[in-house]
Fold this sequence. Notes:
Radius of gyration of chain B: 23 Å
Shape of chain B: globular
Mean pLDDT of chain B: 95
Largest sheet of chain A: 11 strands, mixed
Radius of gyration of chain A: 20 Å
Order of helices and strands of chain A: EHEHHEHEHHHHHEEHEHHEEHHEE
CATH topology of the domain at 6-117 and 214-231 in chain A: Peroxisomal Thiolase, Chain A, domain 1
Distance between the termini of chain B: 17 Å
Strand content of chain A: 15-25%
Largest interface: A-B, 33 and 40 residues
Strand order of the largest sheet of chain B: 15-12-16-17-9-18-23-22-21
Distance between the termini of chain A: 11 Å
Number of helices of chain A: 14
CATH superfamily of the domain at 6-117 and 214-231 in chain A: Thiolase/Chalcone synthase
Largest sheet of chain B: 9 strands, mixed
Strand order of the largest sheet of chain A: 3-2-4-5-1-6-11-10-7-9-8
Helix content of chain A: 25-40%
Number of domains of chain B: 2
CATH class of the largest domain in chain B: Alpha Beta
Oligomer: heterodimer
Amino acid sequence: MKAKLPTIISVGRTKFGEHYEVEPEKLIEEAGLAALDSARIERRGLDACYFSDYFLPITNKIGLEEGFLSELLELNIPMEITRSFSSALSNACNAILAGTYDIVLVGGMEKMTDRWDKIRDDLMLLEDPWSYYAGCTPEANHELMFRAYIKEHGISGQQLDVLNTALAQFSVKSHSNAMKNKYAQFRKEILIDAVIKARIKAKRPLGLFDFAPISDGASALILTNLEIAPSYTDKPIYILGHSMATDYITFPSRSDLTSFVATQLAMKSALKKANIQLDDISILEIYDQSTMMGLVSLEDLGFCERGKAWMDMYGSYQKDEKGYELKERRIFVNVNGGLKADGNPLGATGGAEIFEIFQQLRLEAGERQIKADEELRFGCVHELEGFGTKAYVYILGGK
Amino acid sequence: MSSEPIERRVAYIGDRLRGSRCNMCGKEYFKLKNYCGTCGRESFGKMEHIDFFYEEGTLEVCTLVNKPTNKFTKLGPYIYGIVTFHDGKVRFPGRLTDRVIKDDDEVSFDDLEGRKVVPRFRRRHAVEPKSIIPTISLAFSFADEYYPYQEYRPVKPSRKYEKPGIVGYGVYSSKFRIRERMMERSVPFLDEDSITAAVEAGKMALIHSGVDHKLVGKVYVGSESNPYAVKPIASKVAQVLKLGEECQVEGVQCVDAIDTEFACKAATSMFKDAASLVYYPDSQESYAMVIGTDNSQAAPRNEPGGELDLFVGYGGSAFIFGLQDVIARFEGWVSFTSDTPDFWRRDTQPHPSHGGRYTGVPAYFKHVTKVAKELMGRLKLEPRDIDYFVAHQPNAIFPTRAAKALGFKEEQFLPGLQVAKFGNTYSGCSPIGLAAVLDVAKPDERILVASYGSGAGSDAYSFITTSQLVENRTRQKFTVGYQAESRFVDYLDYDAYRRFKQGMEAA
């Protein structure tokens, strides 16, 4: 493998949820220190920082986040803010690959509950102003995708009941997984019946328990290259492939309403870069802002056939408490509880996904540790910005 | 606060649903694009600007929004979805408007999806009272309900007249009504106001006349309920209806647009100006449009001035004047004006005030009967020479009494008496009466109109219909009679009526 291969040597995060008393930069301090401590790196050892927050300028009226972080860290090194953890990590990977820097901190933070009264307007306006002007909500596009999906694939009657149950099971499984995640926003089992009742109450295709919450939180990691990594850890995790793709801002204007093209493209390219097969991946973290988005993402990433993910999900729920049986292979999905139960502080979410895969591949996930049928070699992380406007895929692997 | 450049750009695209078509491969796009994604650089300069303002779409998928974002909360639960045009070639996000969904209503998406929809020009969302009022046509209603899909097809005129006249007209009243004391009154939906009614009425007039929108050289909009103290309704109408030649680079229309105000006669007063303009040989203007529009204001019933609350309506009417393919030519006109302060609204006051009990005798009756008598005298006409008489109608009693005092019989004045169907639509009021008559009149009939505006004044016009009237009629389904009798009308109770009149910005 290449000497400059981006390599994660440590991770850190905060609990996700509501952090009423805490400033956003204090959240990243906690996550960043955890990562630094774990790798036994002094902050002065960092060459640069890549941070992310989706919309602190709006939620917290903070513009030059880099300045707050320079003050916090007492460092004058290069720092850049992007909107998602994955985009920060992507820039960091490119810098490491290019040999520009040797050790960087990647961190994400978000403070959504500070803006609880206006957050849905902000989220929707940023997702797509035209849909906002037409009356869209952060939930509506997920529901329209559901409607388009069942029409496209001719799902009705009993099949529709199965699909609805499969989506509910996805949520139930997420909550169940989060029981063992001390950082998760929701550590509470839910019942399939509750998910379905919430939909009936909402009179909509998806209900309260189909959607990820709004959250505060931060996550961080230390990235270096393959060459240097062994001096910090004996269990480095390599970023074997990373890729991203984009799509129209206006969801209704896209050619396909039943999938995210950006995810498909990013996955294809990430697999190629990592030079592995889809079948080599046994654990993945998908971006489930809703159960529907989770379902479609399983198809977009290639783990299920188009129009069939719900059957696989339904079928494997009975057999496998933790994992899924997709294309006759056992696969672990959102073991940390996913966005649904772990939480979704936008700028930090991708970091929590990496955090999980990092720990799992190092067999350090404690009581969450999965026991795969074969050796746990490769993990996949998927993150979206907007409603599929940007998609990131990371392929991680240990030794 | 509003950003006027952002508002200008969003409205420019959204009010008319502007898009683009690649003339190389035929691919269509929402929003204006300089090149096609498929054809790339070669398509530069070959992208055609199109719009979907007069098109019929299909609601592809939908969901219920019962937890809207903050700026949509006043609309109550609504259906939101994706609308396709041209067999799925282009898709828009869209909200279904003109629909009241109650908490216990069952909503079946299967029943809604796949149905044809028509874009509607509406307020976009709520804003602060000081802000620019945002508008958009990403609101839709079902074509098989109250508001039908109608093709707009400009027709090449076949006959030129010596004297000007009406070449087409349109009336718009909302789907919602309140029914009280033998009277039905139209009520705007929460996203409607006098601006949206003006655009709708103008659209109907273009459809009915078959006049090429590019040939309309001036538009007058009379209203006393413009939501702005300063900013014309007419400029919005001109841009949304693309009146006059459009200079596409700057997005400017070669048209004159002006708002007028004189209580309920703000529109009828401009009939003669529009006619004179198109008649003046050097004006170069083929057509002029006059719109009367109001979301008629009234204080709540139990407050001073609340008597009006029993009569006010909502709606607009638009008349296009020209010299070609005239459906009703002018025979004569006359006006009277006096400084009679019978009804007024001071700036910043939300509701008008009026003197005593409508000051019927020294205000309405004096002006209406005098102006009608004067015009009949000048044209040497007796009541029996006139087929239809239309008077301003703030209620049913006033115009009936005035008509009888002038010697008219019921068959002469009842066809034009529409107040019991729509309420007093202020500037749009006597013009709606005139439109109702034109909907049913035969060729070579004489119509006498006597408007009235508080403050005070009256305009009288005599029109003679032509045979062209019958041909134009085939183009318009959305007639006054249809709107009055449509089975899709929704009736509201008093509380909902007050809430709807306040609109989506109500506190």
